[in-house]
Amino acid sequence: MPEPSDAAPDATEPSLEAQIAAYQREFQDLDPQVEQVVSALQRLNRRMNVAYGRQTATLGLSNAEWEVLKALVVSGAPYRMGPGELAKHLGLTPAAMTHRIDRMANEGLVTRERDEANRVRVIVELTHEGREKWREAMRLATVFEEELLQDLDGDERRILGEVLTRLLRRVEDTQPDAEGRLSDLA
Q: Residue 43 and residue 160: Cα distance in Å, rounded?
């Protein structure tokens, strides 16, 4: 029996159609339209994360380091945050954040210094090299994202963005313990 057109010839993962058919066989109450949307979003997210990981690896960055650089850039000039604030923002334990900051400081991507106003507090600051790595990662991501959305015109992109944002808000509103809220992106 030939594979459906959306499956790679050597794919270990079944096509969306095959997955949904199996789910329907085992759970008759399944809405196939809902499952198609959710499964496609999950697969897209996984594949995009792999692609971004490949890109950051070419720059000598891990995805974890990229997340720290991104958080510092999003915080705005002077691109500084406390380690606890970074850990909370990224959903990490303070110990995990400390290890990540140690590696990044050794690589020259961030500095870590005592806050002059409060000597107990430590401040993590983005370096020029860290900001340049972030910019290069953004350049690579922009090319990938434009290629990803190349078949959508401006209106379709806008509508897709609005629909996905509505779905994200619904998850945030109904799952308050979910990490990474849309308001964190603002």
A: 17
